[in-house]
Structure formats: structure tokens, C-alpha cells
Amino acid sequence: MERRQFLSTAAGLSASTLLLPVAAGAQAKYPSKPVTLLVPFAAGGAGDALTRMMADYVRNKRGVAAAVEYKPGAGATLAPGQVARAEPDGSTLGLYSISPFVVVPHLQKLPYDPLKDFTYIGIYAYIPIAFYVKADNPLKDWAGVLQQARDNPGKFRWGTSGVRGAAHIAVEAAFRKEGLKTTFVPFTGGAEAITALLGNHIEAVISADYGPQLSAGTVRLLALTGSEKLASQPPLPTFKELGYPLSTEAIYGIFGPAKLPKEIVTYWEGAIRDMMKTEEFVIGLKTINASPVYMDSTQFTANVAENYRKIGEAIDALGLKK
């Protein structure tokens, strides 16, 4: 698969397997103990589904004792913080998504440095972040959203899967450019935000967690916060096309603590490539409206550094730190 380029994008998992007894003093081959895969969001969203795909694959195909653990909250920074403090033995890894690595570090003090405290292992999925409403909402397009917000200052309520994340900042920047005052409602995960939307507690959600609801016909997509198009009718406008200050997609993969040994990185790069060839992976991606995209550790690391720089420059230019 070809590596795709993203203007600003957006993670992680782990392993362990039963091994034959080894001679005293000999070092067991990785993975020699259970692996915990930390998810920075609540259960039920796209990140959860992608992490479980990886955990299920290594458990069923490689005999790895892999467990998924959820660490939502604090702008999706709790899981990265725990991974940063973990031993670099591959037993604690995390799901990578863009916000806690290239957005939030520019907005608040964190217990980790995204450019120093992690090993970026591999990327395997991409989802356009969408701005969407309930299917029975009279709003039919992005222009309608702008008009409603303009006619009702401060009353248009919207939420995301993570506070001060990529989607939150991109939409905030778009509304600022339009000169609109709206109301942001925080949530700890995409599933929670969608529940509020379906219960009419908010007017819109901006996240990558819309796949099942889109298939069920319960939501309507109105815009994409990045530069990538979806095959949809009518075609959806992208934030890049609209000329907004930030355009961002979501990419997901695996990361670990700094100084992971090369053999551990290689193990997971191989597991990712093998998983992406399976029918289960292809079907799983369709369910959440995701596409496959592969980056090895070298490409992934460069992607994080570049997007960290670009997002930081945009946040400074917009004055969003305030």
C-alpha cells in the first residue's frame, strides 16, 4: 500500500505469547509476557474498534496475550502519559490519534514531550473527520450550519470526541474565520458525543466515529475537516476547499515508550502489515468508514514531527493558546 500524505493527521497497540521454556539466564524472545493496548478514548468509538482489530489479530493469529484498556479524559492525554512512563519492553503500547501528540501539547502543559518520549511504530488506518447532524435535522449542508449559527448567536451547540483535539481546534478556527459565536460541548469519546446528538442535546458532532450511524441512516454528514474527499452524493466540502485555517484528517496506529528496541518495532511493523492483508481487517474498516494506510516507524515518526510543527504554527497564528 502506498503511503498517503496528510496536511495534518492523526496510533497504538501491543502483544505477548506463550513461549517454550528457555534455558536459565536466556532472554525470552519478544513478546514473552502480556501486552496492554491503551486507548485514549471511551469505549464504542472508531479508536476502540481499530484497537480491538489489532488486539484480536495478534491474539488469534500470533498467540499474543493482548488486552485493551481505556483511558479517556484530559484531552486524550492520559494514555500517552502512561505509555511515556512505561518500561520500554513492549508490554505497554498505545493507540495513536493525532490530537494528544500534535495539537494538545501546544495548548497545555503535559507530562510528556511528543518528540522525545515515544517510539512511533506504525500507522494502519485513516478516517476523514466529519461534521455531522442527525438525519432528521433540517440542516442539509454546511452553508445551512453557518446561517443557523449566524441567526442564533451562541445557540448552535456542537461537540467532539476530545476536548482541545484536532477536530475541536479545526472547527473552532473555522467558526472564528466566519465570525460566528457558537457553543462547544465537551465529551470524553465519540460514542458519548453521538449519544448526545441522537438525544437532541446538541446540534452537531465533529469526529471520526460516524461509520455505523451513517450506515444506519441516523446521521447526515455536512462537511469534512480535512483535505481528503469521500465518495458521497452530494459531494461534501472539505475545510481545505473552504479555505479554513486548519484542515485535519485522523490516522491511527501504534506507539510505545521511547527507546523501544528495534526487534519490538520490527515485530509490530510486521504484525500491522500482515493484519492489513486479512479479510477481517477490510470488513472492519468498512464498518467504521475507514481506509487502509500504512506507514512504517520511520515514516510515522517523520509525519508526527511535521504535523507537530504545522499545527503549532497554525495555533500560534490563530491565537488559540489563549
Helix-strand layout with pairing:
Blueprint: E1 35-39, H1 46-62, E2 66-70, H2 78-85, E3 92-96, H3 99-102, E4 118-127, E5 130-134, H4 142-151, E6 157-160, H5 166-178, E7 183-185, H6 190-198, E8 204-207, H7 211-216, E9 219-224, E10 250-257, H8 262-275, H9 279-287, E11 291-295, H10 297-318
Parallel strand pairs: 1-2, 1-3, 6-7, 6-8
Antiparallel strand pairs: 3-10, 4-10, 4-11, 5-8, 5-9
Overview of this protein structure:
This protein has 322 residues and is of the alpha/beta class. The protein has 2 domains: 35-126 and 250-318, Bordetella uptake gene, domain 1 (D-Maltodextrin-Binding Protein, domain 2); 130-224, 3-Layer(aba) Sandwich (D-Maltodextrin-Binding Protein, domain 2), CATH 3.40.190.10. Helix content is 35%, strand content 19%. The chain has 10 helices and 11 strands. The chain has helices spanning 46-62, 78-85, 99-102, 142-151, 166-178, 190-198, 211-216, 262-275, 279-287, 297-318, and strands at 35-39, 66-70, 92-96, 118-127, 130-134, 157-160, 183-185, 204-207, 219-224, 250-257, 291-295. It has a 6-stranded mixed sheet with strand order 2-1-3-10-4-11. Helix 1 (46-62) links the parallel strand 1 and strand 2. The longest helix is centred in the last third of the chain and has 22 residues, at 297-318. The protein is globular. It starts with 34 loop residues before the first strand and ends with a helix. Mean pLDDT is 88; it is low at 1-26.
Offer a few descriptive terms.
D-Maltodextrin-Binding Protein, domain 2, 11 strands, disordered N terminus, alpha/beta, 5-stranded mixed β-sheet, 322 residues, 6-stranded mixed β-sheet
